[in-house]
Specification:
This protein is mostly helical and 106 residues long. Helix content is 46%, strand content 6%. It has a two-stranded antiparallel sheet with strand order 1-2. A hairpin with a 4-residue loop joins β1 and β2.
């Protein structure tokens, strides 16, 4: 989970669902540097796209770890996604995201 979630609430949910683990991004990705800030016209705010990309990267790393363990245990072939491939993949956005359009009003 990311750093901006109510951790105690999620820990309780994980316990109720008998989850084996609950990871924060820092557990998987290491400590994060300073947050990226976006300066708007009137305010400055944290770039949540960067946080979402970090959460996605951590999820891929965890999923790959667990799937690799299963494949090895079952004698299967393991193909790993490199950190560079993960980084490139989480940067991809659909072409329609935040698209600006001029719509005539008359």
């Amino acid at each position: 989970v990311g750093k901006n979630v109510p951790l105690e609430v999620l820990q309780q949910c994980a316990k109720e669902k008998k989850a084996l683990e609950l990871y924060q991004c820092d557990d998987v990705m290491g400590p994060e540097g300073a947050p990226r800030l976006v300066r708007g016209m009137k305010e400055t705010f944290e770039d949540y796209d960067a946080e979402n990309s970090r959460i996605t990267s951590a999820a891929i790393v965890l999923l790959q770890f667990h799937l690799t363990q299963q494949k090895i245990a079952n004698g299967g072939e393991v193909t790993l996604i490199t950190p560079d491939e993960i980084e490139r993949g989480v940067k991809i956005r659909p072409p329609c995201r935040f698209e600006e359009m001029d719509i005539p009003t008359t």
